[in-house]
Amino acid sequence: MTGGRRSSPAGDRPPVGCDRLSRGENLYNHGITPSTVRSALSSIHDVARAAGVSVATVSRSFTSPDAVAEATRARVLAVAQELRYAPNRAARGLITGRTGNVGLIVPDLGNPYFHGVLQGAQARARLADYAVFVADGQESAAEEEALIDAMRKQVDGIVLGSSRLAPVRLAALDHSPTVVLVNRRVAGRPSVVVDSADGMRQAVSHLAQLGHRRCAYVSGPRRSWSDRQRRRGLRAAAAAHEIEVVALGPVPPQFESGLRIAEAVVRSEATAVLAYNDLVAVGILRRLAELRIAVPEELSVIGFDDIPLAAMVRPALTTVALPTLRAGEAAVEILLDGLSAAGPRRPAARTLPATLIRRATTAAPRAT
After folding, report:
1. What is the pTM of this model?
2. Which CATH number goes with the domain that contains 183?
3. What pLDDT does residue 110 have?
4. Fewer C-beta within 10 Å: the chain N or C terminus?
């Protein structure tokens, strides 16, 4: 044969349209057979037809599984697997008018607390085939508001972690896109909070049982809603146990803040100190070691958050554990539920428990 292409047996001929899809190439050269071509072309409509449900039900089975009956979702997923169908974010956006993205804005990406929130948010978003855009608000209300405006047209909803915005600004935010708060509670806004007040009560009760009667509290940022809740729990528990509280701070929620405030803690003559978070507590531990003040023999220390570092330092830090993974998951669940709702609904509000983790930095005060 000269010139032209070698003809193929009829049984080996690519299906109609394959040469067009491959821009003239023979798809068999790439291991693609007629069955895989058909599978690649399976659409959401094919899945809906085969499963005997609506296109909307197929979409919700992937994006908002909690909104679909378990048996129905199982049938849809089985059909989708058989047809080798996978949701296409771009195609889904053309149908639904949605981006397939959610935003997560936190005040400080350097704070390990928010790593857990991010992991939980990503895990839940991934189940719904959503991507997560992450931004750092730099502990600034103005920066946070600018990020919300920048993300508005790129995401279907935003999770705000420990927002530094004033309540009136949060209440005034547009409801498009949906905004879900973590560690904040504002009327009219869906939220996920941890019961920090109860966590503080557990910590104070623990110190009271050990015999402490004078404790210092190093407070966090002035705009921190979580700090206000901790102080509320502290006041109630201190009154109940007749413990005198020395207030120190506010300080940024960082390791360096603990280094700087430690000497003020020593001067307060408190026998125990409760820090706003674990980073501050670890900074206090470091400076106390430099001052040769024994922990917990001379001073007990309690943190908040239970970041991984809390168990790694020596002595290991007694702290109040906050379920950060679950908080991130719950926030995205609420966001996706809101997107799948047929009409307006009452804003969801979830409260997660805090748990005291007793380690090696608390003990009975030294007798005087």
Report:
1. 0.75
2. 3.40.50.2300
3. 92
4. C
